[in-house]
Amino acid sequence: MPVGITIREARGDEMAFVKRLSVDELPDELSEWERPQAQEAKKSFARVMDALLRKKGTEVYVAVLGGGPKIAGYVWLGVSDRPFSEMKVGWIYDIQVVPSERGKGVGEALLRHALEASKRKGFVVAGLMVRANNKAAYSLYEKLGFYPEYVVMSRKEPGPISPSNS
Question: How is domain 5-143 classified at the architecture level of CATH?
């Protein structure tokens, strides 16, 4: 881990910041046709996030720099099922680094911590999803041994997108 980065379990009073960071960064994860509904997507995502954070086995770790109180990023680890078996997987639901702290090794340190936590819990597989165009994240994941296993493909149908068909 780079010098000066401390990773620890998130405290209850820090979860509002974690949720806000995740929800605020959501538009970067949306496809071009979803972006016009970004505000609705953020509200929906906040509700889903609240439900998933209550799920048994969920852990959120934060990174702080230089021992200070300011959160530089977080990783959210949980449990998921493999699509075609009953095997449980250590699932990295989200990893975010505060934009001003990117490029300092925070994301890699958080991801390594989550992988170690996943191993300690006895998972033999760790998984995550990444947008195909997020080259920086994709590169980091490959560096740490992740590889594409399933590919989700999308196609926008002709015509306008409205909340009823989005």
Answer: 3-Layer(aba) Sandwich (3.40)
79 SS3 class = strand
Q: Is the pLDDT at 155 greater than 90, yes or no? A: no
Classified as helix, coil or strand, 134 is coil
> Do 77 and 117 contact (CB within 8 A), yes or no?
yes
Residues of the chain by 3-state class (helix, strand, coil), percent to 5: 40, 20, 40
Going by their DSSP bridges, the two strands 126-127 and 88-97 should be labelled as: parallel
CA distance 134 to 115: 20
- Return the pLDDT at 160: 67
For residue 93, give the 3-state DSSP assignment.
Answer: strand
- Rounded to two decimals, what is the model's pTM? 0.84
Using the CB atoms, write b or e for 57-86: b if 16+ within 10 Å.
Answer: eebbbbbbbeeeeebbbbbbbbbbeeeeee
Locate 83 and state its tokens: 């699509």
Q: Residue 120 is inside which H or E element, if any?
A: helix 106-120
CB 110 within 8 A of CB 9: no
